[in-house]
């Protein structure tokens, strides 16, 4: 589930209790425009690269970007601030919803869309898909693939000659030969969307420019984006109701967290202090993001995430939580669901995607109206203000096959314009909740999906394109306020990393350079490897291509300027 999708069955699901990039990186949110500077560039730095490597910036980029037309359909109850999503705490009756697509733009074309799905694929011809297609004026044949193995399917499809008319590509799958395939097998959407052309599709024109900036591949505007929040999507949760009952306060420093764990841990009673906190540790210790934003300037020299003291300190802090016995055994084994254990009172604190806040509250409050789980604010190790890094403006896209004719392209864009409708519109209500009376009911201002809604209204259509993100849980308005407020407070401490907002394609010769670090991180915090092994891995990384990659990024930085400034 993502902040744009209130159904607990509509988004990426964790397959285990440990942090997982595929589930955590899929959350979407508000996008902002990163600074665009430097001379026009589409370059392969370091020599010997393809024309698809590097980044497109400067005037060339500006000429590609769609015009931005601010939406004015609805006013959020909680305006976006510091990079947060906007918040809505009410669900309007159908009669009061506004129309964002007054004229059906689709012309009845049929096309195929390949997209990930987390859960069971709804049956073909189900009422939800039928209603969406009729409303947008298209006919979609979905080729859904399970999200946890989507990368394998994606690579095989892009290597074949049978590419569907539209393909969803998450950013975490931009490895190996996939980036090159995107530039060779998918259409240039510039003639349809660049500049004022996008105004034919008003909801697409309302997508923030930063998201479009991240949608340029191989020097062409090729992707239809899902905008992302710039604030952290990984939140450290605690059972607020249980804390208050025991007279406890949320921790405000790394030492306080450790001491609190010592106080709370009770394995003999089958209660543990926390789950795996590694992903929260990255934020507490100010660790650089993952590629391509994993660089910082130190005395004029580029330093990588894996070379920093903060990276090692975060691993050591997380390792000590395990070695002290504070972490639930399921986290070490990477089984079960730590969030469910927290909801059951067996774990006091854990970290997960921010959307888990609503997911847990919605389930638990059916039987326990006093249940409260909240995210506490990040802190620096010493208790000061944290150093947080902004997330990319977009990290999931839909691409249209280069073999698609103009009619097909127009029909896909018509559907994307429909799916990008904002909260408070008829189009958004249908996309997120299905057909009233068939998939959901609205009683006393509360939207409720029934069994058919939970089985059919999965995340599918929003992958075509999404609006600037919002959080809208009318059934739990306190959760909406809490989530947006948390984002805004973290956003006050968020800074842009180097190259922020750029779509950067690294040379394929460096594709596997970072492959070992995720497994190594898990082994270190669980006590199976030592922190010294990470130091050796960083040394091997440098000699195995890291220093050459540093030179490649140095030239990119010299040519484009510092987007973080």
Layout of helices and strands:
Elements: H1 21-24, H2 58-64, E1 86-88, E2 110-117, H3 127-136, E3 139-146, H4 150-158, E4 166-170, H5 178-185, H6 190-193, H7 202-205, H8 209-213, E5 216-217, E6 220-221, E7 223-227, E8 234-238, H9 240-245, H10 254-264, E9 272-274, H11 278-284, E10 295-298, E11 301-304, H12 309-323, H13 329-333, H14 338-343, E12 347-353, H15 356-364, E13 374-375, E14 388-389, E15 394-400, H16 406-419, H17 426-433, E16 440-443, E17 446-449, H18 451-456, E18 470-472, H19 477-491, E19 494-495, H20 517-525, H21 531-560
Parallel strand pairs: 1-18, 2-3, 2-4, 9-12, 14-19
Antiparallel strand pairs: 4-15, 5-6, 7-15, 8-12, 8-13, 10-11, 16-17
């Amino acid at each position: 589930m993502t902040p744009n999708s209130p159904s607990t069955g509509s988004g990426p699901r964790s397959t285990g209790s440990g942090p997982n990039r595929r589930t955590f990186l899929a959350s979407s949110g508000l996008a902002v425009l990163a600074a665009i500077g430097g001379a026009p560039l589409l370059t392969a730095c370091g020599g010997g690269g393809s024309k698809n490597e590097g980044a497109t910036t400067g005037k060339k980029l500006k000429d590609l970007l769609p015009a931005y037309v601010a939406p004015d359909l609805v006013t959020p109850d909680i305006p976006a601030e510091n990079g947060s999503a906007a918040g809505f705490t009410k669900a309007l009756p159908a009669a009061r919803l506004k129309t964002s697509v007054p004229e059906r733009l689709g012309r009845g074309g049929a096309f195929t869309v390949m997209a990930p799905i987390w859960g069971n694929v709804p049956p073909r011809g189900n009422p939800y898909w039928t209603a969406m297609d009729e409303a947008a004026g298209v006919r979609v044949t979905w080729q859904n693939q399970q999200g946890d193995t989507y990368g394998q399917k994606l690579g095989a499809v892009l290597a074949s000659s049978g590419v569907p008319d539209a393909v969803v590509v998450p950013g975490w799958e931009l490895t190996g030969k996939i980036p090159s395939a995107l530039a060779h097998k998918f259409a240039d959407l510039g003639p349809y969307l660049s500049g004022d052309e996008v105004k034919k599709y008003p909801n697409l024109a309302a997508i923030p420019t930063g998201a479009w900036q991240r949608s340029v591949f191989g020097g062409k505007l090729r992707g239809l984006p899902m905008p992302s929040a710039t604030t952290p999507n990984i939140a450290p949760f605690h059972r607020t109701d249980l804390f208050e009952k025991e007279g406890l306060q949320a921790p405000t420093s790394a030492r306080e967290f450790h001491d609190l764990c010592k106080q709370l841990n009770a394995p003999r009673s089958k209660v543990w202090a926390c789950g795996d906190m590694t992903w929260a540790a990255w934020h507490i210790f100010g660790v650089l993001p993952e590629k391509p934003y994993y660089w910082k300037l130190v005395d004029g020299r580029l330093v990588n995430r894996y070379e920093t003291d903060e990276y090692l300190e975060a691993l050591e802090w997380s390792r000590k939580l395990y070695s002290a016995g504070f972490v639930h055994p399921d986290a070490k084994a990477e089984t079960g669901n730590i969030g469910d254990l927290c909801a059951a009172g067996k774990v006091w604190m854990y970290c997960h995607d921010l959307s888990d806040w609503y997911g847990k509250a919605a389930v638990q409050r059916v039987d326990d109206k006093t249940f409260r789980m909240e995210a506490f604010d990040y802190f620096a190790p010493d208790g000061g203000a944290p150093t947080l890094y902004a997330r990319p403006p977009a990290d999931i896209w839909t691409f249209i096959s280069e073999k698609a004719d103009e009619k097909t392209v127009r029909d896909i864009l018509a559907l994307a314009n429909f799916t990008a409708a904002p909260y408070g519109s008829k189009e958004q209500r249908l996309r997120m909740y299905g057909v009233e009376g068939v998939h959901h009911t609205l009683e006393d201002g509360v939207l409720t999906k029934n069994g058919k809604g939970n089985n059919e209204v999965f995340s599918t259509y929003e992958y075509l394109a999404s609006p600037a993100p919002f959080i809208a849980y009318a059934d739990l308005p306190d959760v909406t306020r809490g989530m947006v407020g948390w984002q805004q407070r973290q956003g006050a401490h968020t800074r842009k990393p180097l190259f922020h907002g750029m779509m950067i394609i690294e040379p394929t010769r460096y594709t596997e350079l970072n492959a070992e670090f995720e497994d190594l991180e898990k082994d270190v915090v669980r006590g199976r490897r030592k922190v010294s092994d990470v130091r050796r891995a960083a040394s091997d990384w440098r000699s195995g291509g890291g220093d050459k990659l540093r030179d490649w990024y140095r030239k990119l930085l010299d040519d484009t300027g510092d987007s973080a400034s």
